[in-house]
């Protein structure tokens, strides 16, 4: 088969004619179906009125509906009234947005922020920011091609880094026996990572497990990472959304920088501002000094220009107005806490309902974990039963999106989980 | 806390992108006579950006629609946008659409569409992961074309003859010769209309000759369509070449931008149209493009696509849009004829019919780098070193000054 395919593309005119008469794309394989999409498709087809979609990675309110933040609506009204033009943004994006983004992540009192020894460029939400960073490291970080991801990590991390030309390795992270952090395993693996490799850390609300290190554990990890001289890549997609407190959620990022670790960082406003489809995000490099930051910035632009020229304005402008307008910023902080609190409340209710059902299992991990996702510890056969018998849809790894849980269906969920685990 | 030598200590300072540096210099210039003929964005006769009236109207509709939210779009984009964007390029009665062998990928501007197409071709065209397939860009071309294909992994970017500086027109014979000599299966980036930077397009007859050679040599057509409607004022006329190739049975890509013809520059609205042999091939191609999109931007921004989709699906708004597009195209045509007539009245050495023969936003004036430098430094008129001017930078108020300055540059500097 391979020989036949290679023959088709040699310069022999007759063979080429045959190839041309068919399609250029005859050999293109069908891409594998997206597993999470598959969950949603099956959910849509289900006619059970009690059905639940726990695959969705977007926030839902207590009625199961998408939630447009009030501060976002206000920012949009402000934008509409100003009748601004639609001129191209600079390649690095909206300056008011990138500066506010850096300040949000680093903290207004951060030495790195105040000294200007950073560069922040606007990226296409979290994915686009990760990709810019990955491409930048591929081009300029010559000491290693290896990116160490926690096991497990967000499914899209691997193809992003791979497409950027880097290689993937892993360090232990999640302990399926306890449904919590395998701290000893993580520290052991990190201590053995070759110097000057790249290590990716989830700043908060680890996706998919919801398992975050405690501050004391972060301190030890920072010390180890520094000892191993690793380049730290933080992915912060849930600042504010995890604990409800933006400073608390950025603690690890800020601690690492304070320890003299010049991190790179990608941020997303998809969840914490509900700006999903507007693609607002940012990529930051902490540098030695402002001069280096300028050089790095110039190279980031060289990477961005052949990808999409310059970023989309709408989401960044909404985020910028919110971050830079005191009353709106206050309102946002209240709303993001509201979202986080609802999630935390659902976790608590799920555990108490499981107890009420009479479950004898230890479900503490559900409330120990944080953020949108929860690794329930359910096995594939149990997940299968939840889907088939109860119309509760989740991915095979037992991950549920707490955003899909409401006060109206948490009882049903607890009942179902108890049935398949008792 | 002594910092070890930074890992980025050796990162060199990259040169700024020329066209943006030009605008930056223009902004800093305090001279009241200054004119910006650099970056390619439309300007009114007052020298101001222009948000199309139909766009403002649709934005109000969107803002007032309480049912809309900011949820993720599908990976390939807003369905109503994709289908209608491709329909605009290929025509309502396109056989390819009727035969269900057209695919679309909503992209971040024309650049994003080019990049997704390039990434796909590098992975799946002419074998798998064949980085050696030659990619041909016109000489000259939009400078970002090279970078898009290089960053997508292609190793062999070549040029094909295009601009004939001596006769200030298309070097058709050179172009056809290059196509004859190109290795089979080479990829050719073709400007669908309003060639950037020369403003010089092949005639329909010349396109037919180009298509014939490309068919015979199994060359892949990748159209870059950034100015549909903006060039002649007619959507159909500006899409003639793409549609001709489709009617000749080619499989092709067409990267579309709605930056200029909708004035939606900063919303990053683009579409990659894929024309294949049949629906099955197109489906498989799209499934692989989805994977590429997923690691580049996951899913595209919704605002701009909504504006375009709403406009294209409403007969009344669509008519308004075509009218707005014609307004822009007509002003450019007027500036062309006004500039030419002034240069001819002044008796500026050389011939100036190319100013009105050329089409679209740009004109290759024929000014050489020294003359360009004179224009910038002495006259505070900013244009690209190639002699390219953006006709949109001309207004009834600055026409005289620009014409006189060109006259001076041509007579004083050789």
Q: Can you give a write-up of this model?
A:
The complex is a heterodimer of chains A (422) and B (414). Chain A is α/β, with parallel strands linked by helices and 422 residues long. Chain A has 2 domains: 35-67 and 341-420, Aspartate Aminotransferase, domain 1 (Alpha-Beta Complex), CATH 3.90.1150; 88-324, Type I PLP-dependent aspartate aminotransferase-like (Major domain) (Aspartate Aminotransferase, domain 2, 3-Layer(aba) Sandwich). Chain A is built from 18 helices and 13 strands. In chain A, helix 4 (70-82) crosses helix 14, helix 4 packs antiparallel against helix 15 (326-357) and helix 10 (215-227) packs parallel to helix 12. The longest helix of chain A is centred in the last third of the chain and has 32 residues, at 326-357. Chain A is globular, with a radius of gyration of 23 Å. Chain A starts with a helix and ends with a helix. In chain B, the strands form 4 sheets. Chain B has a 7-stranded mixed β-sheet with strand order 2-10-9-8-7-3-4, with helices on both faces. Chain B has 16 helices and 13 strands. Chain B folds into 2 domains: 18-50 and 330-412, Aspartate Aminotransferase, domain 1; 79-313, 3-Layer(aba) Sandwich (Aspartate Aminotransferase, domain 2). By secondary structure, chain B is α/β, with parallel strands linked by helices. Chain B has helices spanning 18-28, 53-64, 79-90, 95-98, 109-124, 144-151, 172-181, 204-217, 235-238, 240-247, 279-296, 302-312, 315-346, 354-357, 369-379, 399-412, and strands at 35-36, 102-108, 135-139, 157-161, 163-164, 169-170, 187-191, 220-225, 252-257, 269-275, 362-364, 381-382, 388-390. The model of chain B has no long low-confidence stretch (mean pLDDT 95). The chains are: A alpha/beta (422), B alpha/beta (414). At the A-B interface, helix 2, helix 4, helix 7, helix 8 and helix 13 of A face helix 2, helix 5, helix 6, helix 11 and helix 12 of B. Chain B: Homodimer. Chain B: Belongs to the class-I pyridoxal-phosphate-dependent aminotransferase family. Chain B: Residues 33-406 form the Aminotransferase class I/classII large domain.
